[in-house]
Structures are given as C-alpha cells and as structure tokens.
Amino acid sequence: MHYKNDTITIREFTSEEFPLFSTLFENENVTRYLPYKTPEEYKEMFDKALADYETEPFSRWGIFNTKNNDFVGMCLARVFLDHPEQLEIGYTLGEDYWGKGLGTEVCKALVDYCSSLNHQKDIVAVTDLDNIGSQKVLLKSGFSRIENLVREDRELAYFILQKG
Fold first, then answer.
1. Are 81 and 60 in contact (CB under 8 A)?
2. Would the pTM count as exceeding 0.70?
3. Do 87 and 77 form a contact (C-beta atoms < 8 A)?
4. Least confident interval from 77-81, 86-90, 147-151, 160-164
5. Which positions ≥6 away from 128 have C-beta within 8 Å?
6. Can you tell me the distance from the alpha carbon of 164 to that of 151, in angstroms, rounded to the nearest whole number?
7. What pLDDT, in 10s, does the model give residues 48-88?
8. Residue 127: beta bridge partners?
9. How far is 146 from 152, CA to CA, in rounded Å?
10. Residue 46 to residues 16, 38, 41, 109: CA-CA distances in angstroms?
C-alpha cells in the first residue's frame, strides 16, 4: 500500500525502521488500549510485516508526516482472525499526533485500499471498550457499532463499515 496527501504518507516500512516502530509502543499512553506484547513480539510483528510485503496485499505500514517525514504511527489491513470472511483495519498513532484528524484520514485511506482489492468482504475494526477517541473516529468514518466482540480474555467494541 502506498498513500500520500498533503498531510500523511502511508508506505511500507524499511528494515532499518524497526527502532521507529518499536518506539511507538514504548509510550504507555499509546499502548493503554492495546493487548500487552513483549519487545520480542513487536520485533516478530515488524519482521512479519516486511515479509508480507513480498507475498500478499495485507500487512502493517508506516504512517509519516508528508511535510517533514516525521514518523506518525502504524496502520494495518488484514483478514480478520476472528471472522476470516471480514477484513480488519486498524492504526496506532504516536501521542504527538492525537486529536489532529489523522485517524480519520488513515481510516479513509485503509478503507479505500481494501475496497480497491475487490474482496467483497465487510471491512471491520475493533477497539478497547474504553477507547472512546478511536470509536469516534470509526463512527465519523462511516462505521457502525455492532454487538461487542467477545474473546477469551477480553471484550472489544466491534465496528462494521456501512456499505453504500
């Protein structure tokens, strides 16, 4: 995936950018609503993203500030593990970039990308029940909240993109 406008650029990570990727997850405010992962798990996640670029349309990508190339965060599109007939999108932004409308821009770019693949699958997203900011972004981006998604260890707010 490659997306660029005046504000953000979404592109593949390079192998040298793992420090940027891992630094994102060192901020407790950023990870508050994410499942706990060890530094090793983040490295595995990053390495898988790089490998996915070669083999499939889904992965994790870096989000950068178009004006100064500053690292903004990470986004993803993938087959939804809980419901493989759906595609999941998600993003994580660095705290300096919260509240600037970037989440909405990233959501739109991810939805456009998934739609361009003509998968005919519903596009969904999940958030922590307490992550009100991300829930507002999803609602603003055309998603509707449906029943909560229940996993073994937690319950998540579950959103589906309204078609049409």
1. no
2. yes
3. yes
4. 160-164
5. 32, 33, 34, 134, 156, 157
6. 30
7. 999 999 999 999 999 999 999 999 999 999 999 999 999 99
8. 157
9. 19
10. 11, 13, 9, 21
Contact present, 103 and 131 (Cβ < 8 Å): no
Beta carbons of 106 and 137 less than 8 angstroms apart: no
**Among candidates 111, 151, 107, which has minimal Cα distance to 128?**
151
**Residue 164 pLDDT > 70, yes or no?**
no
As to burial, measured by CB atoms within 10 angstroms (0-12 exposed, 13-18 middle, 19+ buried), residue 162 is exposed
Measure CA 153 to chain center: 21
19-58 pLDDT, tens per residue?
Answer: 999 999 999 999 988 888 898 999 999 999 999 999 999 9
Residue with tokens 């049409």: 164
How many CB atoms sit inside 10 A of residue 152's CB? 4
Residue type, 37: K
